[in-house]
Design the sequence.
């Protein structure tokens, strides 16, 4: 059993990834979240203190899309939602190339894009707890 991670999942959300060694706060933006992976835009800047949302929205991603195994979030000391901004089609460009390379049809990509854009505009964060139980990732909703 691993230490659980409480995570507020917000499509279009900016997150601080705080390493255990205190080497600097890195930032990613959540594009999509699935049972096995999260898809994120990664930023090259690191911060010594928690950045504000206003500090992040004008930054350009260093990498527009990266698929990352969901259980890797448990390797961080802390992952905190800083805030969110609705996704745009431009924000999802790298993700769409990725999906196309994996043979996802144009119709399925368009449907996913519409869902992601809608989620990022209207949905409140989903409060989850992630933990490894018997080497299997478990996700449960939490109240707070």
Sequence:
């Amino acid at each position: 059993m691993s230490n659980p991670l409480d995570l507020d999942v917000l499509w279009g959300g900016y997150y601080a990834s705080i390493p255990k060694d205190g080497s600097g706060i890195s930032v990613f933006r959540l594009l999509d979240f699935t049972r096995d992976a999260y898809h994120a835009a990664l930023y090259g800047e690191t911060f010594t203190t928690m950045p504000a949302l206003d500090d992040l929205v004008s930054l350009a991603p260093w990498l527009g899309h990266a698929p990352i195994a969901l259980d890797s979030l448990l390797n961080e000391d802390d992952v905190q939602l800083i805030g969110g901004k609705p996704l745009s089609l431009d924000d999802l460009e790298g993700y769409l190339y990725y999906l196309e390379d994996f043979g996802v049809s144009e119709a399925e990509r368009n449907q996913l894009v519409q869902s992601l854009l809608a989620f990022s505009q209207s949905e409140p964060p989903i409060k989850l707890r992630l933990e490894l139980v018997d080497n299997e990732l478990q996700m449960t909703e939490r109240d707070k």
Q: What stands out?
A: The chain has a mean pLDDT of 92. The chain has one domain: 5-141.
